[in-house]
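Reopening this one. Same input as before:
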Amino acid sequence: LLYEIGYFSEALDQYKTVLDGSPNRLNALVGAANAASGSGQAELAREYARLIREQTRAGNRHRSTLAPFWN
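Same output, byte for byte:
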């Protein structure tokens, strides 16, 4: 919700909290990448995108939420 209403930094903080407990949670990685990008943290967004590509390399990367990270 925070991301959807434009609170990108706050959303990123929440995604980081989730990732602290579950570092490979794909939906949290996607959210964190998008929130980092929205908050102007391009380098962090690229790092999350790298983790997403690494995690989905052998799986279904054609999910609509994953497409931006593979194009």
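So the earlier flakiness isn't reproducible anymore. For the record, The two ends are 26 Å apart (CA to CA).
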